[in-house]
Design goal:
By secondary structure, the protein is an alpha+beta fold. It has a single domain, classed as Clavaminate synthase-like (Double-stranded beta-helix, 4-Layer Sandwich), CATH 3.60.130.10. Helix content is 29%, strand content 30%. It contains nine helices and 17 strands. A hairpin with a 6-residue loop joins strand 11 and strand 12. The two termini are 25 Å apart. The mean pLDDT is 94.
Length: 270
């Protein structure tokens, strides 16, 4: 593999053939180490199908379902994230995937299937670099804190839409609020990360509503400072794999009115 940094704090371009990587335990281990070290690995010009994508996911860990998304026909582990002019995407906030679970997924793999030209990018932010750039006083203050993460909080817009409410009501019942540390160690690394996000983190436990809102807003804005981020312009054949323990991400929603279709795996290796 040839590895080139994509930005100062996060991201690496990885030149390899994933179809061959899945045939080698050593190559999969090298890819995994790259993801952990750089937060997100970006691979261009890949031709793997859903079966090979699933095989790679299984070698990285246990594949996790998502309660709100449909899956690819013939590949029940591969989720479809799709935005059309008729049903546009509603996810606009920075987040780490599925932190509403007691054990959130370790890695996410996303493959570009249908992407509009010149729009529909994804951005990532390094939650580890953000933690390390805090002042010692603030870092020490938030270290023992815990926050409440809530599926229903993250899907408020879907709940308000009669067309999508019925599909997620059962998922809300199956996913009650959970508690996570505000600062979380990253397994396989000697680093720790800020582990709150504006999509799923409802409040910080033990603080008043006002105090919690103030602190969460400050941490969210600090995390997405330019020097902590990287931006990817998708094209067909591009695959990104990232570490949800150490990063956050968001789609750049400038593709409304266009068709954008991505294939995703969420993988738990912890």
């Amino acid at each position: 593999m040839r590895i080139t940094k994509a930005a100062g704090a996060i991201g690496a371009f990885v030149e390899c053939d994933l179809a061959r990587v899945v045939e080698s335990a050593q190559a999969v281990a090298e890819l995994r180490a790259t993801i952990v070290e750089h937060g997100v690995a970006i691979l261009r010009d890949q031709t793997i199908d859903a079966r090979a994508m699933t095989l790679l996911g299984e070698q990285l860990g246990a594949i996790e379902p998502h309660p709100a998304y449909g899956t690819l026909e013939g590949a029940p582990d591969v989720q479809i994230l799709e935005s059309t002019p008729e049903v546009p995407s509603k996810i606009e906030l920075w987040h780490s995937d599925m932190t509403f679970r007691a054990v959130p997924p370790t890695f996410t793999m996303l493959q570009a299937d249908i992407v509009p030209t010149g729009c529909g990018d994804t951005m990532w932010a390094s939650a580890t670099a953000a933690r390390e750039s805090l002042s010692k006083e603030l870092a020490d203050w938030i270290e023992p804190m815990e926050a409440i993460h809530d599926f229903a909080f993250g899907f408020q817009e879907s709940l308000e839409d009669p067309a999508t409410r019925a599909t997620i009501e059962e998922a809300i019942e199956a996913n009650p609020p959970v508690r996570h540390p505000v600062v979380r160690p990253v397994v396989e690394s000697d680093r720790s990360a800020i582990f709150v996000n504006p999509l799923f983190t409802k409040r910080i436990d033990g603080l008043t509503r006002q105090e919690s809102g103030w602190l969460l807003d400050a941490l969210h804005q600090h995390l997405i400072r330019d020097e902590h981020t990287v931006r990817l312009q998708w094209r067909p054949g591009t695959i990104a794999v990232w570490d949800n323990r150490s990063t956050q991400h968001k789609p750049v929603n400038d593709f409304l009115g266009h068709h954008r279709r991505m294939l995703r795996l969420t993988i738990n290796a912890d």
